[in-house]
Amino acid sequence: MNGTLNKVMLIGYLGDDIKMHYFDGGNCIGRFQLATHEIYINKTTNEKITSTEWHNLVVRNKAAEICEKHLSKGDKIYIEGRIKSRQWQGEDGTTKHTSEIQVTEFTFLSTKKDSENNKQIPTSESLKNTTFDAQNNGLPINDLPF
Fold it and tell me: pTM of the full predicted structure?
């Protein structure tokens, strides 16, 4: 294999709301932290241990605006992206380093807004008096209309 691969896939929870930064020309980026964790049992103490990793994520332009609109702290998301390292000069003159995940794909798994909307969905009791029954229009039940 001659090529290389820089791909990250994560499922985790947002540690805070998306922080947006806008630039001249209409471009923008959104930054947020994602928490992933693993749970294991310490063999010597039989204690349940949870280990959390924090990942710095960056989304760009339209994807950033979508994430800002729909995501908030605590929401669960699946992301794909690549690791990118960068450095800059701090205000004190020191060189700072960080590694970030440049998000290329994402899927919202659960959002607080979704769970709030689910509370507003009518219960089966309130649906009993509605007419959602399909009409067969004279066709056999298993017959497709095309």
Answer: 0.70
